[in-house]
């Protein structure tokens, strides 16, 4: 890496301000990425929409069909 030669304090301050903004931006990106990772690791997000869809389908059935479908699903799970 080549060293930069500064001739005035204004040049130094300008580069320091640019570096501070870049550091703040990198920190904000990291924090956002960390929050997204935490959210994706929650149990409901790991399971997905499948249980919700299955329960919605079972809810649409009536009487004996509902109990038979529920029993079949429990047998498959366990």
Describe the structure.
There is one protein chain. The chain is rod-shaped. The mean pLDDT is 83. The chain has 78 residues and is mainly α. Helix content is 81%, strand content 0%. It has helices spanning 9-40, 43-47, 50-60, 63-77.
Sheet with most strands: none
Straight-line distance between termini:
62 Å
Rg is 28 Å
Number of domains: 2
Counting DSSP E segments of at least 2 residues, the number of strands comes to 0
Uncertain regions: pLDDT < 50 for 5+ in a row?
none
Topology:
Elements: H1 9-40, H2 43-47, H3 50-60, H4 63-77
Features:
Glutaminyl-tRNA synthetase; transmembrane; membrane; transmembrane helix; 2 domains; mainly alpha; 4 helices; 78 residues
């Amino acid at each position: 890496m080549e060293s930069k030669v500064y001739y005035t304090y204004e040049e130094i301050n300008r580069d320091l301000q640019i570096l501070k903004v870049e550091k703040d931006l990198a920190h904000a990106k990291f924090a956002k990425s960390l929050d997204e990772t935490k959210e994706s690791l929650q149990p409901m997000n790991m399971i997905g929409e499948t249980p919700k869809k299955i329960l919605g389908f079972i809810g649409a059935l009536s009487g004996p069909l509902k109990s038979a479908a529920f029993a079949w699903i429990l047998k498959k799970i366990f």
